[in-house]
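Morning!

This is the sequence you dropped in the shared folder:
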Amino acid sequence: KYKSLLPSGIISVEGNFNIGDSVSVVDKSNKEIARGLTYYSSDELQKIKGKKTKEISQILNKPSPIDYEEVIHRDNLILL
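The structure's back. Tokens below.
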């Protein structure tokens, strides 16, 4: 079953990208396992990686509830 990618599942962020860009998702051995459209920029992800969804609004200083809980929603994610 497909699942969305949440901030808590992110260990590191590489490169620079904006909201809506297509990004690669790699595993711990640096093998690409998926691609998807991100709801957060690389700068925002550097701040929220590894965090729980409920912490996002405070960390990014955005009103709660936040627009997106997922970094990449399963409908915008392709497993390779």
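Headline: The mean pLDDT is 95.

More detail when I'm at my desk.
O.
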